[in-house]
Amino acid sequence: MPFFEYKGKNIFYQIKEKVPTKALIFIHGSGGSSYIWKEQMEQLNLDFSLIAIDLPSHGKSGEFKKLSLDLYVDVVRNLIDYLSLREVILTGHSLGGAIIQSFYLKYPERVSALILCGTGARLRVSPVILNATKNNVKEYLESIPIGAFYRRTSKEIIEEYIEEAEKTAPKVVHTDFSICDKFDIMDKVKRIRVPCLAIVGKFDKLTPVKYSIYFKDNIENSDLVVIDKASHLVMLEKPEEFNLAVLEFIDKI
Q1: pTM above 0.90, yes or no
Q2: Which residues pair with 171 in a beta bridge?
Q3: Range of the domain at 189
Q4: Most exposed of 35, 45, 97, 169 (fewest Cβ within 10 Å)?
C-alpha cells in the first residue's frame, strides 16, 4: 500500500497511475476516507493519474494529536511534492472542498483546476451535528441515511458507507465538522481564476444547491452540474453521472 511520510507519520493514498506528472487528486470530507472515491478510482478513464488520499487520523493514515485546516492543506502540498506532480486538478468533497479552496488561495500557481463537490465557500454546521459528534456519535451515525443520502438510495450503498464512517474516531469527526463550521471564504471566491466545476446532488441537505450556485455566480470560469436523485454523497449515489460530469469538464479545459 502506498504511503508517504509527513512529520514522522504515514499518510495513505490510493493511486491509479497513468501520467506520472499529471494527477487528479480526490480529498474526502468530514470523518471520511479515500473510500468515498471508489467509483471514481475504478471507473474514470483520463489522461491523468488518479489519487485519493486519507487525511491525517483518517482511514489508513497515522494519527495526529491536533487536526486543522492548515494541517490538511499542508499534507496535500507534501503529497504533490512527494510525487513531483506538475499538473494538478484538485477535487474536494464537503470539508475536502474547503481544503482545496484554501490550497488554491495559498498556492494558486500549483493548481490547474478545481472540482468542488457538495461543498461551499462557507460551511456552517448544524448545532445538532456538532453536539452529536461530540457527545453521542451513535446518534450522528443513525442520522446519516436521512441527512446525507437521497431517500431512494440503495440500502447497500448507505450501509457500506456507515460501516466505513464507524472506523473514524468520534473526536476526529467532531473536529472535522468544527473546522467546517469556522470555514468562510465567501469574500475570497472571486480570486479563483482556474477552471472550476461545482457538482452537487439536487437533494443535498448539508450543502444545498445554492452553495454551488454561489460558486457559479462568483467564479468567472466555472460550470455547475446538479445531479438528480442524489444528496450529499453524490459520488457514491450517482457515480455514472458524477464521472460523466468530471470527464466533460476535463475535456473542456
Answers
A1: yes
A2: none
A3: 3-252
A4: 45
Burial of 89 (0-12, 13-18, 19+ CB in 10 A): buried
| Angstrom distance (rounded) from CA 199 to CA 227 | 7
| Residue labelled with grid coordinates 451513535 | 138
CATH number at residue 41: 3.40.50.1820
DSSP 8-state code for residue 222: E
Dihedral sign for Cα 77, 237, 59, 34, please.
Answer: negative
| CA-wise closest residue to 236 among 137, 148, 122 | 148
CA distance 228 to 238: 9
Note the pLDDT tens digit of each residue in 4-50. 999 999 999 999 999 999 999 999 999 999 999 999 999 999 999 99
Give the number of domains in the chain: 1
Cα–Cα dist 15/193, whole Å = 27
